[in-house]
Amino acid sequence: MKKKIAILSSFILLNFLLVSNSFSEEPTHLNAKNSKHEPKEKVHKGVISSSGHYVSNTKVDSYSTEMTGESKSVITGSVSHSGKNECVAKVFNSSPKNKYSVSFKVIGKDKRGVKALSRGFSAVIKPGSNVSRSIKNCKKSLNLSLSVVSAKSLGGKK
Fold first, then answer.
1. HEC profile for 44-92?
2. 105 domain-assigned
3. Distance between CA atoms of 45 and 69, rounded to whole angstroms?
4. What CATH code is carried by the domain that includes residue 144?
5. Could you tell me if 118 and 138 are in contact, meaning their C-beta atoms sit under 8 angstroms apart?
6. For residue 135, what pLDDT is reported?
7. Do residues 111 and 58 make contact, with C-beta atoms less than 8 angstroms apart?
8. Which of 28, 31, 60, 112 sits in a 20 to 30 Å window from 18, CA-based?
9. Could you report the per-residue pLDDT of 102-157, keeping only the tens digit for each?
10. Distances (CA, A) of 12 to 25, 34, 130
11. What is the pLDDT of residue 9?
12. Looking at the 3D structure of the chain, how many domains does it have?
């Protein structure tokens, strides 16, 4: 009788281990493309760059991913004055394999923090490439910010 109970409990334990192990692993047929378990690329939305002559009462709405401990975004950028009344925004795609469809905007605020300029753009950026957009009527006195509104991966280099 003790032998039958031992065999039955061993059988139940073995079945439990097999069933729990099958739920803990990802089915290979569902993830055949990502068999290398590559980390997902991150895209941070919001302000990614700013420049200007900031005064103490003007809020600069920007952050640094290195300071917050977050992983780096594959979409980065810069914004700066390039001429007397012109500025340029550059958006970079640092992904080695995916192209991205990106919507972004440039906001210009005066010394009081009042929005004086707002321009929106969109572009498809190939892996390792960048796009530039020039903005006319962009006064040197404005504080500029470049924001990612949305970004969507379009997949590999086709």
1. CCEEEEEECCCCCCCCCCCCCHHHHCCCCCCEEEEEEEEECCEEEEEEE
2. yes
3. 16
4. 2.60.40
5. no
6. 94
7. yes
8. 31
9. 999 999 998 888 999 999 999 999 999 999 999 999 999 899 999 999 999 998 76
10. 21, 34, 59
11. 59
12. 1
Q: How confident is the model at residue 40, as a pLDDT?
A: 80
* Alpha-carbon gap, residue 158 to 150, rounded angstroms: 22
User: Which range marks the domain in which residue 51 is found?
Assistant: 46-153
Is residue 79 a contact partner of residue 51, using CB atoms and an 8 Å limit? yes
**Tokens 């690329």 label which residue?**
41
Q: Is the pLDDT of residue 80 over 80?
A: yes
User: What is the residue whose two structure tokens read 């073995």?
Assistant: 14
CA–CA separation, 152 and 128 (whole Å): 15
In a 13 Å sphere around the CA of 113, the CA atoms on its Cβ side amount to 7
